[in-house]
Amino acid sequence: MKSLIAYIFRRLLWTLPTLLLVAIMVFFLVRLVPGDPAQLILGDQASVEDLAALRARLGLDHSIPAQFLTWLGDVLQGDLGYSITNGQPVAQLLLDRFQVSAVIVLTAVTLAILIAVPLGMLAAWKQNRATDLTVVVLATLLMSVPSFWLGLMFLLTFGLTLGWLPVVGFVPFSTDFGAALAYVVMPVATLTLVEMGVLTRMMRASAIEVLRLEYVTHARAKGLSERRVLLRHVLPNAFAPTWTMIGLVLGGLLGGIAVLETVFTIPGLGRLMVESIFQRDYPVIQGCLLFTAVIYVIVNLIVDLCYPLFDPRVTAR
Predict the structure, then answer these.
(1) Which of 47, 154, 207, 285 satisfies CB 3.0 to 4.6 Å to 186 for a cystine?
(2) Is the pTM of this model over 0.90?
(3) Tens digit of each residue's pLDDT (9 = 90 or more) over 97-113
């Protein structure tokens, strides 16, 4: 128990400098964008007085270190500023859009896990047979298909040709659950299929490695059924590397499904970032980058904290 607590404490402690480094990188990356933000926002015809007023409102009239310290202090208080385009608080915009993205990503990743783990186990159990070859080919094909192309094919087939599902727009689940479900079916299906290929390959490779270990041979020699060997001895040990991959996939998708949200016109976090880039809305861009990075760090922290559940040897190290 003490080793587990020490492990959790170490992981939490290492998260703090990581988040600070993320904040520094986000701040300075935005500042490296060519051009004067005030000039880009107001246009070439803006007066000197208007430019000076906007720079003062954005804090651009201070030195870079002073700007960073002011911004970091506001961020620690939960204040990410206000959107230049519509004047709304950036933090509220991010939370509203993130709820949409999170529903799609979490549902898709959950479905991908439920399908990929059994498929990977089956392929490993039937290694070098027709079943294994079929699963590997299918997984490789899914890994090779770009998500935006698959999404467009879904739109063309089920939206335009068959007319089963809507192709443009979005309805919140709080407004109409049935209509909202119709709008998210294709995005969820697209993400599920794309991520299923990666997780299936990872699960298969891990399960094959575990099946070659001596304790599996010993369990079979004891007369245990193949089903019991796979579920009790192979699955828990083979799932640990797959769990790490799930964390990477989940963290990446929660902050990086801008292309898919653009294809399906879903008002999620990724689409907000794309729109704010075109509109030169620097507070929103900065907030999106920081929020995405923090989500990625938090998701991987949760994965690391849960890792001892699948591999108790981690606490010993």
Answers:
(1) 154
(2) no
(3) 888 888 888 999 999 99
